[in-house]
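Handout for the seminar on molecular recognition.
Each group receives one record of this type.
Step one: identify the two inputs.
Step two: read the structure output and locate the region that could contact S-adenosylmethionine.
Step three: write two sentences on what you found, then compare them with the reference statements printed after the record.
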Amino acid sequence: MTRTDGDTWDLATSVGSTATGVAAMRALATKQPDPLIDDPYADALVKAVGLEHCIALADGETCVEGDPMLDLNRMCEQIAVRTRYFDELFIAAGADGVRQAVILASGLDTRAYRLDWPAGTVVFEVDQPQVIEFKTRTLADLGAQPTAERRTVAVDLRDDWPAALRDAGFDPAEPTAWIAEGLLIYLPAEAQDRLLDNITALSAPGSRLATEHMDHRILAEGAGKRIGEWSRRVGSSLDIADLFYTGERNTAGDYLRGLGWQVTVRPSKEAYADHGFELPEEMAELSGDSGYLSAHLK
Ligand code: SAM
């Protein structure tokens, strides 16, 4: 564990570099002949960060022969399933009249620039200051225009982010669509509970939330170690598992149910099947009961 309370980063270091890694997968998936996702800014963002192994991945030049889990086609499928799951939460919420969205741990997420938001939608992006500043500046330099009213909230999600969100104009009386994609494993157990408490306190009836459903038992049993080995094999100088907070924690789904949310879990196998893919056997073994979770506050 290389993490400390109050640690900070940019997009090339520590937890920030994981956002660049995920964006590299989106860039690669976007470049496929019949792409399953279209993130037109991912490639330029990854190149602007400048991490060599992420650029190689975005360009499909990562050499990972002999490890089926690092097959580039599989990576494209994996990121497409994930991206589309979270896209869908926003699309469905918008169709139901929700006009306030919050992207927690926004990293290099470009949904505020690439989704077709209904008129009048305000999208808040929350992440650490250096992450927010870099993406905002790089996309402005590229001439990218948000497709909704985008507001940034530069704050640590272990701190008093609700106050910062309100200061940015968030209205807790309005229903909100929240996503926390690729975040929970980077938070200590009690910070995850506090995050879900805060989301709930800020959520008017009709709000939705999507995040990962993690099988922590599997992570503790060695999946984290395997994920760390892969990060090394694709050329990262970090063992990504060192950034995780493993160990006992509440599952997000159980905790949210206790707070009054109606929770639906989509196991990875079914999320893959939704797009006509088969979850690779090795990944099924590693992910256990993991998948995606959406929750609705009636
Ligand atoms: N959601 C983005 C995506 O899926 O492309 C980024 C995911 S990346 C794996 C993890 C993100 O969580 C990074 O952008 C990182 O800065 C953010 N993050 C993790 N812990 C955080 C914290 N305590 N405060 C603010 N942001 C945090």
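Reference statements: The pocket of S-adenosylmethionine is lined by residues 15-16, 18-19, 22, 105-109, 127-128, 131, 156-158, 181-183, 186 (CB under 6 Å). The first helix runs from residue 14 to 30.
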